[in-house]
Please model this.
Amino acid sequence: MNSQDSTAPNSQFTFHRIHGSRIRLSNSSKTATRLEAAKFYDNGVVYSALPLSGHAKFVVQAQELAVGWSGSFKIGVILISPEVFKDGFQPPRYSPAMPHSWVWSSLSLHVGQDLKISYGSVNLEDLKKGDTLGMEISR
Model:
């Protein structure tokens, strides 16, 4: 998955050093690869290195997709800075388990750990290799 912050054309958006155990960062932490995605559905959570603030937009591109898993591609935001993560912090096994988060999966939006609502007209299950997906945050 490649990412870019669309609010700044020459942005240095990167992924945080803390991530799920089945993630490999490359390309100066601009690319996150989910390891053994065909075998395992979990431990593939990544975060941005810096908090997105204000009216932020970001785009990710699916460079490869795992088949056979429902909800294999999710995108979301957390409402706390990654800097609050201490050494030894382990991200949740899967993204909707994260408190203080908004996670888009399939046709649903998970808000924190409890609420799941219908969201949008794009089903993330239909993504294909090379597709891009964006989110806009306004608070």
